[in-house]
Design goal:
Elements: H1 5-17, H2 22-38, H3 42-56, H4 63-77, H5 80-90, H6 96-109, H7 112-118, H8 120-124, H9 128-140, H10 144-153, H11 164-178, H12 181-192, H13 199-216
Helix pairs in contact: 1-2, 2-3, 2-4, 3-4, 4-5, 5-6, 6-7, 6-9, 7-9, 9-10, 9-11, 10-11, 11-12, 11-13, 12-13
């Protein structure tokens, strides 16, 4: 979002106060927690996420909000107990979005093989979100050949506008890890197709574009 930090905070606070249901309010409050954490306001972010956890705990109809809040708390604290709490809650769900969320925290925790097991059915169905998540896991695990193989198996027609950014990032990371000139060119082309969705994304895309283009122009040893 191309708004100054204080404007983003005001917008999210208004969204929370004007919500029509607890779920809408918690969604806005967790977005505010993200914002506060990104701005370095850790204690304030923890206070707000703990409030959502306290309110949503104990009611089965609110378990998804609880799982999201627990996951966010772990990302802020990086404490093992918070990871276990989030993982245990996410494991109670079976739909694709929740399996993806579980895989994300497993990858961030370094549990790459477990993340791949969680997404095994989606990978078998060639779901592009699952494929992109596991490419990230394989790159982090330094399994570059396996990441490259999965990347090249993604059907580009299934990459929606929403996925253009993570798809381009995956291409760039694999290309840089492989030092493959053909992949570098494809990565650059994909990065140029990423829609403008905020200053932070634009900076990241430009940095990756500079890296892949610079690597391609580097003298060969």
């Amino acid at each position: 979002v191309n708004l100054p930090a204080h404007k983003q905070r005001q917008y999210l606070a208004r969204a929370a106060s004007g919500a029509f249901s607890d779920e809408e309010r918690w969604f806005a409050e967790l977005e505010l927690v993200h914002h506060l954490s990104d701005c370095g306001k850790r204690e304030e972010a923890l206070g707000k996420v703990d409030s959502v956890i306290s309110e949503s705990m104990g009611a089965s109809s609110h378990r998804r909000a609880l799982a999201n809040a627990l996951s966010l708390r772990w990302k802020i604290t990086n404490e093992e107990g918070d990871f276990r709490a989030a993982k245990n809650e996410l494991e109670t769900f079976t739909d694709s979005q929740d399996r993806q969320n579980l895989a994300i925290i497993l990858i961030d925790h370094g549990d790459f093989d477990e993340a791949e097991r969680v997404l095994s059915d989606a990978l078998s169905a060639a779901d592009p979100v699952a494929q992109l998540l596991i490419i990230d896991a394989r790159v982090r695990a330094n399994r570059i050949d396996a990441a490259r193989e999965l990347l090249l198996n993604i059907v580009s027609d299934r990459v929606t506008t929403r996925l253009r950014y993570p798809y381009a990032v995956a291409y760039a990371l694999v290309a840089l890890a492989c030092a493959d000139d053909e992949l570098m060119n494809l990565a650059a082309a994909n990065l140029r197709q990423v829609p403008s969705i905020g200053n932070q994304v634009t900076r990241h895309v430009n940095n990756l574009l500079e890296a892949v283009e610079g690597h391609g122009n580097a003298p060969q040893g």
